[in-house]
């Protein structure tokens, strides 16, 4: 029997996953165009279950769950995703011929999650790429891992996420120039316009947020920050806006009153107004990002796990392993009729040998609006779980 995602994940679980995504975004000097903390979260939980000592403690801190909850997370998350409309999640583990996995660790994994690496690079790459494509409906056709790296991959953990929804109220798409803002000089941008008769627009001092409702369980939130607000602050406000209590409804604004990107006016109509009337103008976007998660080791709890001399995974396998690669490919497309996004996250583990210690990077935070760059995120409506998020630098051009 399938379990609904809101039954599989407690509010505390959802909060932990969202905190991970938010911390990850805040740690980067630039906000990715597309990224999924949800794609990383279960892999960290799987690593934590196989770790001991300080490595175990650091990974659990990043996951935001206790040991028993982290161990159960992969199964619960997969089961819950199967019952979520518009969401697909897959997890996989591939072990090389020399790796003997701890049976207690494998017992915590979904039954269909375990596969094998043959050592034939071409054959393994073809199989891994096929898995990525199959589980993202072709949106991502390659596993983001280098099988020819100096440290051969002995064990690979991966997740594949697919988010897809069609708008309840489709947009009208045009290529007319935007009347104002930094994007007004662009030639033939894909401009989207819609009118909503529901309360979908909220404002606050730092940002305005439009909720674009999709069929099923998926909404996409668009966040326009104050013109002087750095992208990280805009993204932070958008994460806050996952809480329905954030901000105030734009329907509370008086005629002539303005908010960020919002102007309230009045006109004479043929029929009486019976509810909210919200006009929205935004742009289509099509973005892809390839992320080296080694840059984000501190934010993702991988500092010790990625250090060959300090990683402790004795509950995972008999061999001395460390995380030698951690990467994600994420793509997101927002158009007139709907939204789709996919993310494939891979963590390759190599055997500790004579390799020098991996540097423990500390990152400097550098804080660097819908006619100008804005933030977006896709959220599972019933739980508030953030699925995919990112930053749109420029609209998609017309074909």
Written overview of the protein:
The chain has 399 residues and is of the alpha+beta class. It is built from 9 helices and 17 strands. It has 2 domains: 225 residues, Antithrombin, subunit I, domain 2 (Antithrombin, Chain I, domain 2); 145 residues, Alpha-1-antitrypsin, domain 1.
Layout of helices and strands:
Layout: H1 5-8, H2 11-27, H3 37-49, H4 53-63, H5 67-82, E1 87-95, H6 103-107, E2 114-116, H7 121-135, E3 153-166, E4 172-174, E5 191-196, E6 201-203, E7 207-213, E8 218-225, H8 231-240, E9 248-249, E10 258-259, E11 262-263, E12 278-283, E13 285-292, H9 297-300, E14 321-334, E15 338-351, E16 374-380, E17 385-392
Parallel strand pairs: 1-2
Antiparallel strand pairs: 1-3, 3-15, 4-5, 5-12, 6-7, 6-9, 7-8, 8-16, 10-11, 13-14, 14-15, 16-17
Helix pairs in contact: 2-8, 3-4, 3-5
Brief overview, please?
This protein is an alpha+beta fold. It has helices at 5-8, 11-27, 37-49, 53-63, 67-82, 103-107, 121-135, 231-240, 297-300; strands at 87-95, 114-116, 153-166, 172-174, 191-196, 201-203, 207-213, 218-225, 248-249, 258-259, 262-263, 278-283, 285-292, 321-334, 338-351, 374-380, 385-392. The chain is elongated and about 75 Å long.
Output the keywords.
2 domains; 9 helices; Antithrombin, Chain I, domain 2; single chain; six-stranded mixed β-sheet; Alpha-1-antitrypsin, domain 1; alpha+beta; 399 residues; 17 strands; six-stranded antiparallel β-sheet
Shape: elongated
DSSP E strands, number = 17
CATH topology assignment of the largest domain: Antithrombin, Chain I, domain 2
Number of helices: 9
Poorly predicted parts: 354-369
Name of the top-level CATH class of the largest domain: Alpha Beta
The H/E string reads: HHHHHEHEHEEEEEEHEEEEEHEEEE
């Amino acid at each position: 029997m399938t379990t609904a995602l809101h039954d599989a994940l407690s509010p505390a679980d959802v909060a932990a996953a969202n905190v991970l995504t938010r911390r990850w975004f805040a740690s980067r000097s630039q906000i990715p165009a597309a990224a999924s903390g949800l794609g990383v979260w279960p892999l960290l939980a799987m690593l934590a279950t196989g770790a001991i000592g300080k490595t175990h403690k650091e990974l659990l801190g990043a996951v935001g769950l206790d040991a028993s909850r982290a161990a159960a997370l992969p199964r619960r998350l997969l089961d819950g995703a199967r019952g979520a409309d518009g969401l697909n999640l897959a997890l996989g583990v591939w072990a090389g011929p020399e790796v003997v996995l701890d049976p207690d660790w494998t017992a915590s994994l979904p039954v269909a999650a375990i596969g094998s690496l043959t050592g034939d690079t071409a054959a393994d790459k073809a199989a891994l790429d096929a898995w990525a494509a199959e589980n993202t409906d072709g949106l991502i056709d390659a596993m983001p891992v280098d099988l020819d790296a100096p440290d051969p991959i002995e064990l690979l953990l991966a997740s594949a996420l697919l988010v897809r929804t069609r708008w309840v109220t489709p947009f009208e798409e045009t290529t007319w120039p935007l009347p104002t803002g930094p994007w007004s000089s662009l030639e033939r941008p894909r401009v989207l316009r819609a009118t909503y008769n529901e309360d979908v627009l909220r404002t606050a001092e730092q940002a305005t947020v439009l909720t674009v409702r999709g069929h099923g369980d998926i909404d996409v939130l668009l966040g326009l920050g104050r013109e002087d607000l750095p992208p990280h602050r805009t993204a932070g406000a958008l994460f806050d806006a996952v809480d329905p209590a954030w901000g105030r409804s734009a329907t509370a604004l008086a005629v002539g009153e303005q908010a960020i990107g919002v102007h309230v006016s009045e006109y004479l109509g043929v029929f009486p107004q019976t509810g909210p009337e919200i006009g929205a103008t935004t742009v289509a976007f099509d973005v892809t990002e390839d992320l080296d998660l080694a840059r984000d080791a501190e934010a993702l709890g991988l500092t010790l796990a990625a250090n060959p001399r300090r990683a402790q995974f004795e509950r995972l396998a008999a061999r001395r392993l460390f995380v030698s690669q951690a990467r994600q490919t994420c793509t997101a497309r927002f158009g007139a009729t709907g939204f789709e996004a996919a993310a494939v996250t891979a963590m390759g583990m190599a055997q500790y040998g004579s390799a020098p210690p991996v540097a423990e990077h500390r990152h400097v935070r550098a804080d660097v609006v819908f006619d100008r760059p804005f933030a977006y995120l896709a959220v599972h409506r019933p739980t508030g779980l953030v699925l995919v998020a990112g930053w749109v630098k420029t609209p998609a051009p017309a074909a």
